[in-house]
Every structure is written in C-alpha cells, then in structure tokens.
Amino acid sequence: EFMQASWDIEEVQAKGIQHLASFVKDKSAFPFLLKCTGVITLAMKTHIDSLDLQVEGCNLLLEILSQALEQGVTMALDESVASCLLHTVRKHLENEEFLSMLCTLLMMVSASEVAAENLRKAGIIPDLLSILRCFLHNDKICFSCCAVLWSLAVSEDNADQAVLESAVPVTSAVLQKHLQNGVVAESACSALWALALQGCLTDSDYEPTAALLLDALRMNPERAVLVKNGCLALASLVRLSETAALAILLDSKGSGTELIRDEHHLHLDEPGVAEALCLLMNEMVQYDEVLLDMRSQKMEELLSEIKLQFPFS
Q: Catalysed reaction per UniProt (predicted)?
C-alpha cells in the first residue's frame, strides 16, 4: 500500500523494494512476497531510468522466483508483469551486466507456460535475438536466452513463424561459439530442437544444422540431456528431409551411426537417451538408401541391445 500510494516517488519505491527484500530469508513471508511481484515490476517500469532500482527489483524477483522453483510453486506472471519486464529489457539493452541478470530472470519466469505465452504475446522474441547477436561472447546470457527461446518455441502456436525462423541462424551461431561449453550447448540444442519441431528451418539449413548438432554431441558426449535433446533435434530434421539423414551418415568428422552407438554405450542407464536414439534411428530408416547403410553397419544389433536393456519401456 505504501508503494502503491506513491508510484511517482522513486525513493519510496526503492525503500519499499529494500524493505520487501529484508523478508526474503523468512520462509513464512514467502506466500506474501509472491503477491508482490506485480508491485515490484511496476515500480521498475515507472522508474525505468534508475539503474539502481532496476537492479534491486531484479534481484528481489530472482530471490522470490528461486524460492518458488525450490518449493515447486508455479508463478504464472500475468501480461502486465511480462510487459514491464520487456520494457526494462528494451531500456537497458547496452548494459551487459544488468542484462545478464535480467535474462536469468526471464529464463526462470518462462518456466511457467502461462508466463512464457505472455512474454511471447508481449513480443519478446526479436529482443532476445538482438541480445544474442550483441552478446554472443557472454555464456550466461546465451544460456538464458536459448532457454527462454526453447520455452517460447515449444508452446508456440505458429503465430510468430517468421520471427521464429529468424531465430535459427542466431541459435546456430550460439551453438557454434559455445560448442565446448556443455551448459550453453545443451541450452542451444534444446532451442534448435524446438525450432525444428515448429518447422522453422529451410532446405539450406538441414545439412549445416545436422553437422553442428553432431559436433555438439561429439564435444559433450557425457551430458545426457544434451545428447537426448541433440538427438531429438536431429530426428526432427531427418523427419523433414533426407538431406539431414545423409548428412548424419556422411559427416566429414566421422559416421553418425558410430556416434549413435558410442552414445548408447556411454548412457546405458539413461532411458531418455535410449528413447531419443531410437526415435532418431526410426526417422532415418524411412529412407531406403539410409536404411541399407544402417543395415550394413549392423545397427540391428544395437537395437536388440537397447530392447534387452529396457524390456518394459
């Protein structure tokens, strides 16, 4: 009430945010703090030029969201909150340090389907792509933005198809730049999978994207989630085009079928990985030429092995 009575006074908003922040460590205050997100974001939007207030507000929202995620509470932030956050993003596009924090916040917010949809409606995708282009070197920003892209593309109703298509080269650039950073590569692979699912790739994208995903698998073979999502992305590409299937077989850095075999043996106890590998192989055998090659490489043996390993799946 104190903050709402004096929207226009920056000092009142700053003191209010600081006071709310003092309750963060008190577990019993959490349900009440949850109700304050709208007040905090509106204070940030009203005093958009005050970087100190933006940073404190963002920190407080991160604390509240972290606790919500820990406790399994879904925070479906409404459209006004999404629009306030987007307003803040646009105002501070040059501030790398603050953007890094803000993108982490957006990633946490987008974990809720409703909030992700509200961010999409607010038109955040072009802003995410601009941020990625400007800060391709920043692993933290790339990780967060790709995670947000994944959330938005997965829940996408194709209303923004053209915008999503423009995300393909940017996401590929992130993966190329951070191939050896498992955390970022995992996030970028997930985003590419979602974009492939939405049919956002063109004929000229299939071969280079397949090669890039294979590189990501080779560089991070031990990361189960990356392997799973990378294989699902490859399966989506193969479903769309035989070019992608042939690119996997004839990759200049080594046979994709050998890579599939290696990944299975590395993740013998991971049903999610086995399922993704089977889905990929299932898409590949739809093409006669690819099927013959897989037979010659005795892939039936691998399939029998997987069947024995997971008889009830």
A: L-seryl-[protein] + ATP = O-phospho-L-seryl-[protein] + ADP + H(+); L-threonyl-[protein] + ATP = O-phospho-L-threonyl-[protein] + ADP + H(+)
Q: What is the pLDDT of residue 158?
A: 58
Q: Is 73 left (phi over 0), alpha (psi -120 to 50) or beta?
A: beta
Question: Whole-number mean pLDDT of the chain?
Answer: 91
Q: Kindly state whether residues 115 and 242 are assigned to the same domain.
A: no
pLDDT at site 121? 87
* pLDDT tens digits for range 153-177: 887 565 677 888 999 999 999 999 9
Q: Are residues 115 and 240 in the same domain?
A: no
Among the three residues 111, 134, 154, which one is the final residue of a domain in this structure? 154
- Compute the residue count for the chain: 313
Query: Encoding tokens for residue 111?
Result: 């974990």
Which of 273 and 255 is assigned the larger pLDDT? 273
Which two tokens mark 194?
């979602």
- Tokens 């030429």 correspond to 289
Rounded to whole angstroms, the Cα distance separating 142 from 140 reads 5
Q: Closest by alpha carbon to 112, among 157, 77, 145, 143? A: 77
Count up the domains in the chain and report the number. Answer: 2
Q: Tokens 């009440």 appear where?
A: 32
Domain that holds residue 30: 1-154
Among 96, 122, 154, give the residue marking a domain's end: 154
The confidence score (pLDDT) of residue 71 equals 83
User: Do 149 and 230 have their domain in common?
Assistant: no
CA distance 252 to 256: 10
